[in-house]
Amino acid sequence: DTEVTQTPKHLVMGMTNKKSLKCEQHMGHRAMYWYKQKAKKPPELMFVYSYEKLSINESVPSRFSPECPNSSLLNLHLHALQPEDSALYLCASSPEVRNTGELFFGEGSRLTVL
Amino acid sequence: QQQVKQSPQSLIVQKGGISIINCAYENTAFDYFPWYQQFPGKGPALLIAIRPDVSEKKEGRFTISFNKSAKQFSLHIMDSQPGDSATYFCAASGGNTPLVFGKGTRLSVIA
User: Fold this and answer.
1) What is the rounded distance in angstroms from the CA atom of residue B95 to the CA atom of residue B28?
2) Taking CB atoms and an 8 Å limit, are A101 and B102 in contact across chains?
3) Which of the residue ranges A34-43, B89-98, B101-110 would you say has the lowest mean pLDDT?
4) Which run of H or E residues covers position A54?
5) Are A2 and A106 in contact, with CB atoms under 8 Å apart?
6) CA neighbours within 13 Å on the CB side: how many for B85?
7) Disulfide: which of A9, B7, B23, B65 matches B90 by Cβ 3.0-4.6 Å?
8) What is the pLDDT of residues A57-99, one digit of tens each?
9) Half-sphere exposure of residue B14, counting CA atoms within 13 Å on the CB side?
């Protein structure tokens, strides 16, 4: 079982809704990530949080808003999404900030936007 | 521009056979090359990884071969089993570049 826990596992929302995805890790890892994965595609990096600093993929629309309440929690706030935002949203953590290649992924939150 | 090129896109192997997936990269600043395994409905899981100072790493039935001069690396799965059926992603990271994934290989091991 993964040590990165994501909730909810499934989420259906309308384009005017506001919802949040939650992620938690208790491995003491120093960096946490949000990835988006479309069917039959590799994961695509959205955000990185390390040492309370946010790094953004500039191609990510502002309707996605990350929040890091503490070093073990990472949220993704969703607002005014589009149907093309439907995807599997993966949270990951890594022990080291310098090596972003050793990632521990959660099982993902399957998002459907109607 | 795709930084890590992966082939084949899909692969069918008989049970007990050897599965081979290949990847190539361009960025010489990459210094960490992991392989991730993903089952349907699950997140990717780190399978095995290598750094450029070694040419081969073996963990059980899984082996990474690394050719620094050719900027290529490959995953070999010996004695492939139906339970190995999954999507495999090669990846690379290093320098100021966060983890970059290949496009993935869907492996089917048939009995």
Assistant:
1) 9
2) no
3) B89-98
4) strand A53-56
5) yes
6) 11
7) B23
8) 788 999 999 999 888 999 999 999 999 999 999 999 998 877 6
9) 2
Measured at the CA of B46, the angle between CA B41 and CA B51, to 5 degrees, comes to: 155
**Given an 8 Å threshold on Cβ–Cβ distance, is B32 in contact with A40?**
no
Residue among A13, A7, A18 nearest A109 (CA): A7
Contact A93, A102 (CB under 8 A): no
Residue A98 to chain B, least CA–CA distance (Å): 8
Query: What tokens appear for A72 in the block?
Result: 């073990």
Statement: residue A54 has pLDDT above 70: yes
Backbone angles phi, psi at B67, to 5 degrees: -120, 100
3-state secondary structure of A85: helix
Min Cα separation B101/chain A (Å): 6
State the average pLDDT over residues B81-86: 98
Provide the 10 A C-beta neighbour count for residue A114. 10
| Full DSSP string of B53-90 | T-SEEEETTEEEEEETTTTEEEEEESS--GGG-EEEEE
C-alpha distances (whole Å) from B111 to each of B13, B38, B82, B86 are 9, 20, 7, 15
Candidate from A38-42, B2-6, B35-39, B65-69 with smallest mean pLDDT: B2-6
A2 and B46 within 8 Å at the Cβ level: the answer is no
How many helices and strands in chain B, by DSSP H and E?
Answer: 0, 11
Question: Does A1 score more than 60 pLDDT?
Answer: no
